[in-house]
Design brief:
Layout: H1 2-32, H2 35-94, H3 99-112, E1 114-115, E2 119-120, E3 123-124, E4 130-132, H4 155-166, E5 168-176, E6 183-191
Antiparallel strand pairs: 1-2, 3-4, 5-6
Helix pairs in contact: 2-3
């Protein structure tokens, strides 16, 4: 048994000796560098460190801040559309408009709303049947509970779940833009309008 320990100790000692030799060779090589090469190495290392700090610390912070700002802006835009629908509902309740006429006028107004250049609002119910989609009118009147996005998720089921559980919230999914058939990552804020 003592023979085994001795062999293991010798192997450990050899490993330590090899590491020291490698370290000494590296230091000797660095010592052999010219002064100008050593001087140039310092700024390169500093630039590399700064780049890594930016890449792994500051960029994620900026991305997170931009996402928060996008969420706030998206939620406020949906609130504007929600207020418009609410106004038509009130006009229907007061008798100024019939209920069906109020719904139709609200749908027409929301259909015409745009923000940024290609972003829009749509209306679906809790089934989820598409009530109005300003870009893909072929979806109107269809139950979209089995419609999958490009990643195999069911965004309309998620819209309904968030609306029922929280009266509104954010949903991340993949959808094609109006001017492009390729699906891109989207973030939408959905809000339940309970009266209708």
């Amino acid at each position: 048994c003592s023979g085994w320990r001795t062999a293991a100790q010798r192997m450990g000692q050899q490993s330590t000796d090899n590491n020291q030799r490698t370290m000494n060779m590296s230091l000797r090589r660095f010592k052999d560098w010219s002064m100008s090469l050593k001087i140039m190495t310092i700024p390169i290392l500093i630039i590399l460190c700064v780049f890594l700090v930016i890449l792994f610390y500051f960029l994620p912070l900026v991305e997170e801040k931009l996402m928060k700002e996008k969420k706030v802006a998206t939620k406020h835009l949906v609130e504007v559309a929600f207020t418009l629908i609410s106004d038509y509902h009130s006009r229907g309740e007061s008798g100024e408009l019939g209920e069906q006429e109020a719904k139709e006028k609200a749908i027409l107004r929301v259909r015409s709303l745009r923000y940024k250049e290609n972003d829009y609002f749509w209306i679906n119910d809790l089934e989820p049947v598409m009530i109005m989609h300003p870009v893909k009118s072929e979806l109107e009147g269809k139950n979209l509970s089995d419609l999958k996005d490009a990643k195999g998720n069911y965004p309309f089921r998620e819209f309904v779940r968030i609306s029922k559980e929280k009266n509104g919230g954010f949903v991340d999914y993949f959808w094609s833009r109006p001017d492009d058939d390729n699906a891109v990552r989207k973030l939408s804020y959905v809000k339940l309008f309970k009266p209708w």
